Amino acid sequence: MKSKVLLFAAVVLLPLSLMQAQEKSSEQNWPDRTVLPIEAYQKVGKIEPNIKDSDPIEWPKEISAPEGAPNVLLILIDDVGFGATSTFGGPVPTPNFDALAKNGLQYNRFHTTAVCSPSRAALITGRNHHTAATGIIMEFSTPYPGYNSLVPKSVATIGKILTDNGYGTSWFGKNHNVPDWQSTPAGPFYLWPTGLGFEYFYGFLGADAHQFRPSLIEGTKPIDPYLVDGKVDPDYVLDKDLANHAIKWIQTQKAVSPKKPFFAYYTPGTAHAPHQAPKEWIAKFKGKFDYGFDKQREMTFEKQKAMGVIPKDAKLAPTPKDYQKWDALSPNMKKVVAREMEVYAAQLAYCDDQIGRIIASIKDLGELDNTLIIYIMGDNGASAEDPTGQGLTSEIGIMVNGEKDTEEFMLKNLDEFGGPWMQEHYSQSWAHAMNTPYQWDKKIASHLGGTRTGMIISWPKRIKQTGQIRSQYAHITDIVPTILEAANIPAPNSVDGFKQTPMAGKSLVYSFDNATAPETHNTQYYEIIANRGIYKDGWLANTTPRNLPWQGHPIPSEDPMKDYKWELYDLKNDFSQVDDVAAKNPEKLKELQKAFLEEGRKYNVFPLDDRYIDRVNPENRPNLNKGRTSYVYHEGNSRITEGMAPNMKNTSFNITADIEVKAGDEGMIITQGGYFAGLALMLQKGKPTFAYAFSHYPQSKWSIQSPTALTAGKHNITVNFDYAGGGAGKAAKVSLLVDGKTVATGDIPKTVPSRFSADETLDVGEDFGTPVNRTYDVPFTFQGEIEKVTVNLK
């Protein structure tokens, strides 16, 4: 009998105890934050057919952030150089950036990749930009692994990691990380912010945005917040709108889940072109830059030394000879160029003011003490993408499509600078002044003017040595590891079943308590458009730029690996990269060149390619329209980005619209682009009209209109656009037909050769953003009915 009892214990009780042990082990191992997502854990008791015989059981434990994990506000500003802000000795007042520096730590050796999309990919993934397949901006992608713009599933974002670890996550402002051919309302959406793990997105997908009429997305839905009751709100400003949405989102998070930490990625388009700001803010800076950019660079350098943001023995890097000199400008052009800087300063100062509202709202919630704020002032150095030396009134018009700014036009329209009908960009030399004390600018990854920007980290609960400077080497890939260590969350090994590529960056938490702690990020390569460099243990080896920052169509090198000269700098003793010591240290240069080759192979940097705008042709990338010559659209088919719209540039085409109207109906039938370059077929007071804009210049706008209005009923409207050929941007003849009969003709002496817009789209039955000309305004919704619109390319 005793043996039977023992046998029963062995057969029944032992497995039961094993199950209990396994359950206890499972509970102890939960959550495993190295494998994402994390399934809820439930301890299950006895379950019988009847509830009265079953044990009460606990609700499943859903994942939550580690105890004490901070809120995170990650701020990234666009196209701001190291020497732009008051915080780093510059002329633009940024009191909220200043305040964080006093209550946090100021990093004066922080580095980016030197251009937009790559920096942003590195920031949100913690990997090098080529690892994230973003070796260049999205519109210029090529099929190679480091450049194809398709972020691999082995490279999870901070949004995905924190969401799966119990944070509420959001993204406000600029994206510029969606592949060009995936950025329409038809998707796919897996590389949009919400597809990359961010729970909420409110912003724009492209390189830039109009401050007064932006093309915005909420989640994956296009929206137009500047329209109120079908009319443009004259008081709308994008930076204010972004701040409002960020504040509301944070307040909602804490109202509903006060113990749940939030992660807000706030990245407005400021201060990328177009430079636009409220009039009252521009007025604050009137006359404050009349001394010019050369003097500004000297003033900033002296102030940086006095403030201690650069060492006392630092040198002011020389300005490359090709940049515009202030004294070479005429008195009238000095007025124009000074005004450009007034607008830039106003835009950046206003943006900082709106960020101050967000920070104040966090303080009002009682959450500031345990909020980690990382404020990066520039995803690259300031932009010198002005080929004229006198600035631009439209980046798309002047730099991309070849319009010529005139002194007469710029002077006449000075009061319009910073407003909705200008998209100016300041002089190349203002950009260079904003990058003081370094040489070169955005796009030049080989030099600190392109890569080094200002950063502040504030975390009152944790950082006690406030108001200090940290000079350890830091890189944009270090931000994700810093956030993860602060939150006590490991970098995941697996996400959604995909093994993860290790982080390239290093956490900066080690520097919080020790200004002299040895730096942990000892090696870092740079590469953009074949400008390249390698940092290693205080040394920087880099190539000499062959092309200037404002050259959109540089002559490509036959062999970028061999055609670039190399320089060498000892940054331990040469803070601002001034003294080239390559001739004195040939072996050290060879060592670093070898290191670059190793890093390049490791991180998918090759092949090198020094083309720029020449890569933009959508035919170079995946395109559902490849080989297609006929497109049929219906009313409401809108927000179709240029890369996925019919390419109505440098070719003949016709547009045919089948519509039904009442007498006097008007509105937009189909449009692409807008005021700064675009075309539109519409009814104006019932009259069929074809409008074309080569640029924003009045003499570069044309309109072909029927002399009579349509009668009530169904009609067929056709535009025949006969391109002259013989190259890009040539002339065209236009004929306008109603029900098969020609009603008007006209000549367009020059056509858009490269791009209608960076942000405006193809829209049917309505118009968003800016109108092609100012004889109407958006949304100009079609009052009749559109059966279909067909575009045929010839």
From TrEMBL:
Extent of the signal sequence: 1-21
Among InterPro entries, the record links this protein to: Alkaline_phosphatase_core_sf, ConA-like_dom_sf, Sulfatase, Sulfatase_CS, Sulfatase_N
One example GO MF annotation: metal ion binding
According to the lineage, what is the superkingdom? Bacteria
Residue intervals of the Sulfatase N-terminal domain: 70-489
Q: What is an annotated GO biological process for this record, any one?
A: carbohydrate metabolic process
Output the Gene3D superfamilies linked to this UniProt entry. 3.30.1120.10, Alkaline Phosphatase, subunit A (3.40.720.10)
The record's section on SUPFAM superfamilies has:
Alkaline phosphatase-like, Concanavalin A-like lectins/glucanases
Q: Does the keyword Transit peptide apply?
A: no
Q: Keywords for this entry?
A: Calcium, Hydrolase, Metal-binding, Signal
Which is an annotated Pfam family here?
Answer: Sulfatase
Similarity comment text for this entry: Belongs to the sulfatase family.
Name-wise, this protein is Arylsulfatase
**Taxonomic source organism:** Flavobacterium cutihirudinis
